[in-house]
Amino acid sequence: MSEPVIKCKSVYKIFGENAETMLKEANGNVDAKTFQENGCIVGVNNASFEVSKGEMLVVMGLSGSGKSTLLRCISRLTDATGGKIFIEGQDLLNLNNKELIDLRRNKMGMVFQSFALLPHKTVVENIAFPLQIKGINTEDSINKAMDMVKLVGLDGRENYFPRELSGGQQQRVGIARSLAVEPDIWFLDEPFSALDPLIRKEMQDEFLRLQEKLQKTIMFITHDFDEALKLADRIAIMKDGIIEQLDTPANIVLNPATEYVRKFTEEVPREKVLLIEDVMDSTTTEDIGDLKVSKDEIIENVAEKILTQEKTVAVIDNNNNIVGSINPTKIINTVFGGRKTNN
Amino acid sequence: MELFKKYPKLFQWIFLLIVFFALCFAIDVPETYKFIRGQAEFVKDPNQSTFVFLGKEVRYYAFDVFWRLPPLLGWLPIWINDSLFFLMNDWMPMEFWNEDTQEYKTRPLVLQITRNLTAFMTFLIELIREILLGGLETIVAFTSWDWIDANPWAELPGLPWTIVAAGSAILAYKLGGRGLAIFAGLAMTYISIFGQWKPSMQTLSFILVAAPLSFIFGLSLGIAAFKSKRVEKALYPILLVMQTMPQYAVLVPALVLFGVGDHAAVIITMIVAVPPMILLTLLGLRAVPPEVIEAGRMSGCNNWQLMFKVLIPTARRDILIGVNQVIMVCFSMAVISAFIGAKGLGFNLLLALNQLNIGLALEAGLCISLIAILLDKMSLAWANKQVDYFGNLNFFQRNKNSLFFGIIMIVGIALAYFGSIYFKDGYNYLFEVPHNKGISTADFWNKGVDWIFDTFFVYIKAFNTWLIVEVLQPMRALYLRMPAIATIVLVVGAGYLIGGTRSALVVCGLTLFIALSPWWDRALVTTYMATFGVIVSCIIGFTVGTLCFQNKHSTKFMLNVCDIFQTFPSFVYLIPVMMLFGITDTSVLIAVIVYATIPATRYTIEGLRSVPSGLHDAATMSGVTKFQRLFKIEFPLAFPHMMLGLNQTIVFALFMVIIGAFIGTEDLGQYILKALSDKKGAGIGLTLGICVAFIGLIFDNLIRTWVDKRKKHLGID
To answer: Do B683 and B374 form a contact (C-beta atoms < 8 A)?
Structure first.
């Protein structure tokens, strides 16, 4: 496997005056309570993970869980108190100011919850802003920005000011701006949280479409578990600065690591999250019917077909080879059964 | 006992008052004590005591320390004076090249710096003045008189008034639309027709220099304070004192450093106008959402780009509100600096007031107010204007205003030329209406004043006498009757009860400074006048504010009235009161009341308005009557904001009391005014100014601490 794009090794972020000495004394054993008694607040507590190229890692947590702080450590909007962060092998915390600016100008893009558009610039000027900061001349940057306008479907509104746009449109501008420099790494900090539910769904779909096309390495922050399940390749669930569990959506739903994670998974409609592959038996029985379903199908889409069968259904992979089987009762158990089923 | 437990604060206050009154009764007035009138304390008198500190001899009348503290700080003004003198005349003599005499000359460093600054300011003012009014100084500065003689075409006249008037109308149109443009055109035409063109343009040129310079300095210092906590901490106390420092007091040291004239006035104006600009810049930059800053950083901005491409444009509105404040302060100073020889409307106003020519004073005052309102509205319109998109407009649409101005230029010059032929013998009215050769209404006003005086003299006089004899004199006597120690106990006790030890210490320090200066009695008189003004202002302001709040239209109307009144330079308020009440304390107090009622009213309305509408609805749904809602919901919630209004009212009142010295009062202001004409007045003026500022700061500290606590308690931010 190639070098991960983002690699974090025991990252700590502690706010407070003598945070650094306290962290040293704690010797890797950080307890939020003792720190708080000494006037320090623990933002991120021993976060280690990797994100590989083209992967989307969604960090999920409630407000105050440290998810935004973690993102700001990785984009170095704040300096981590301890630990190591590598971006494509470069030690982020050792970059000097110039190298950091260089990295941001070429490799990173970020989308913000409150859009954070410049009120005095038009849509196209906002999108061209990072390009102009980089020193690209006006004409080229505007041309490039116009491509971005088209990409996010805002053509015809390029000369509007942010104040004249709806929330969803403003966030499209934010997305276009973050993509203007064609970054490899894309940070999204609760990009859809400020939007109405309907617009949010529309933007999520749009976002998936974009990602399919662009294949960026993504860190996506959200407090919405459904959103995390819908978008993520892998999900990291945070609480009080600690990553409670980092796994694929299916594994999190099926095997919550802690009580806290389990609370989230309880209400999740599993048939919408799990794939056939996640629940099938990898052994094949003799008594198999004619129906074949793909292992990559979401349960919801094929449940009706399977449930109308009396026999066990064969599961196939992309090459039409039978890789397992699934019994209708298994589907019923998964969807309606006790919440502690294992496959 | 029950009561005691329920209201511990109340009993603490009662206890404080008991101690205060006990001290007042226990300490007798010394037989030798009398209020010193005029400048008696500067006369050598064998009854005086003396002490020497830092080589300065201080003379004073000694009393029992409980009655009046000895002026242990009496050396301070003398020391400031001597230090200034030393700096200007003896410190760091250096060789400087002199253009005129073509030789090196030895001059103290500070003198050289101030002279260079002076020359620079004079050049700037002349430059603008000559564009507006014509003249040769600027051209000569770059060439020579000989060159002018050889090239007579360079003797360009100033802009004809028609062009300036039309130009300001176009600018007003661009900033604020048609209404503002009409107002601008009419105001300028009025000024011209009524023969106030020259002084108005002198004042305007003064402001056009002072305001941009103040803006640049304020903005840069504001940015520096935003960037560095240390700079902010260093600036903070200066900003605080400058906010409550009477403008008169700043004039005096400037007189020593920069001499007399427009240039000194510009420098002084900058000193006064920069602090609000710093504050608003800081406020604006702080209000930029953190995510916008992060977005800038993530776009790869370096610090410079972040400041000028992200932060400042985003904080644009607050910064432009700062510009508005700067312009208002400049106007106020444009009048006051007439005391140190600034030319223009302020000078005419002062002259007219000195001659008791109310008609002329009114005319000048009206012009100042008109220009002030115009610039106020224009800068506000600029602040509230949102950026427009120009890319899709063609050349003519984009530049229509400039093009139109170009046409106006040509037409104006043609008109002026035509005028020079038409008005061959007299004045060219199409070029410039000379001073006092326009239509004058002075006679009308003077006759009006005479008529009022003749008709109502008896009533005015009776009211005046009643107020002075029955109210003011006893109140003043009561204030002077307070032993110094009792006053200090009262103030420090209040500080402790409101804000704990910290507040008590701050207030104690401020009070001691005044008590140990030679002017405690004077400070008491200033306080008495301010107190009287504040009480009446608050009663009027709170009542009017509350009444106006009952109706949307009257609320809006009242806020507009407050806006306009606040635009008038403070000095202008003296004109009508002198008209009616002549030279008495009543005049000063009425000016104080009128001036200080503005913030009282405004803050009452704003406070009531800030009560969340949800609470309003909730109260209505629980079936309260209008009065219940007002007293149970709105007043308690609006009270902290109204107290901030009280704070402003006190500051405004103190300002006006000090300015009232011009009419003639026997307080700190009288001495500040005297220091202006005193060669050794710099130290005295500055110390007096600090005393006044400290009176303001004592109240400011107490009120602000209380408001902060109360707001926290109520959970409002």
So the answer is: no
pLDDT in tens, chain A (343 residues): 467 899 999 999 988 888 888 888 877 777 878 888 888 888 998 899 999 999 999 999 988 888 999 999 999 999 998 889 999 888 999 999 899 999 999 999 999 999 899 988 899 999 999 999 888 888 888 999 999 998 888 888 888 899 999 988 999 999 999 989 889 999 999 999 888 888 889 889 989 998 988 899 999 999 998 899 889 999 999 998 899 999 998 888 888 889 999 888 887 888 877 888 888 887 776 677 777 888 878 888 888 888 887 778 888 888 888 888 888 888 888 777 655 544 4
Residue A113 touches partner B, C-beta closer than 8 Å: yes
Q: What is the pTM of this model?
A: 0.83
CB contact under 8 A, B309 and A161: no
Q: Strands A41-51 and A56-61: what pairing?
A: unpaired
Nearest CA in chain A to B289: A116
Q: What fold characterizes domain B210-357?
A: MetI-like fold (1.10.3720)
* Sign of the alpha-carbon dihedral angle for B191, B193, B199, B205: positive
Q: Which residue of B has its CA nearest to A97?
A: B302
CB-nearest to A104 from B289, B300, B314 is: B300
DSSP string over B493-547: HHHHHHHHHHHHHHHHHHHHHHHHSTTHHHHHHHHHHHHHHHHHHHHHHHHHHHH
**Cβ–Cβ under 8 Å, residues B537 and B531:** no
Residue recorded with tokens 């790869």: B300
User: For B305, which of A133, A159, A163 is closest by C-beta distance?
Assistant: A133
B300, B313, B316 ranked by CB distance to A134: nearest: B300
**Residues of each domain in chain B carrying CATH 1.10.3720.10:** 210-357, 519-714
Contact B295 A110 (CB under 8 A): yes
With an 8 Å Cβ cutoff, are A177 and B299 in contact? Answer: yes
Per the DSSP assignment, residues forming a β-bridge with A85 are A8
Chain A positions in Cβ-Cβ contact with residue B297 (cut-off 8 Å): 77, 104
A contacts of B310 (beta carbons < 8 Å): 118
Count of CA atoms in the C-beta half-sphere (13 A) of A262: 8
CB contact under 8 A, A161 and B316: no
List residues bridging with B206 in a β-sheet.
Answer: none
By C-alpha distance, which of B477, B468, B697 is closest to B588?
A: B468
* Contact across the interface for A130 and B297, Cβ inside 8 Å: no
| A341 close to B (CB below 8 A) | no
CA-nearest residue of chain A to B390?
A159
Question: What does residue B417 show for φ and ψ, rounded to 5 degrees?
Answer: -65, -45
- Return the CATH fold of A271-336: CBS-domain (3.10.580)
Count of A–B CB contacts within 8 Å? 72
A99/B contact by beta carbon, under 8 A: no
B519-714 folds as: MetI-like fold (1.10.3720)
- pLDDT, tens digit, 9 for 90 and up, residues B258-303: 888 888 888 888 988 999 999 999 999 999 999 999 999 998 898 8
Mind telling me how many Å the CA of A124 is from chain B's nearest CA? 11
CATH architecture entry for A51-83+90-270 = 3-Layer(aba) Sandwich (3.40)
Alpha helical stretches, state H, chain A: 19-26, 32-37, 67-74, 97-106, 123-134, 138-151, 167-179, 197-214, 225-231, 249-254, 259-266, 270-273, 276-279, 299-307, 328-336
Tell me, what's the ipTM?
A: 0.84
Q: How far is A179 from chain B (nearest CA, A)?
A: 10
Domain boundaries, chain A: 51-83+90-270, 271-336
Q: Indicate the burial class of A225 (C-beta count within 10 angstroms; 0-12, 13-18, 19 or more).
A: buried
What would the two tokens of residue B161 be? Answer: 């008034």
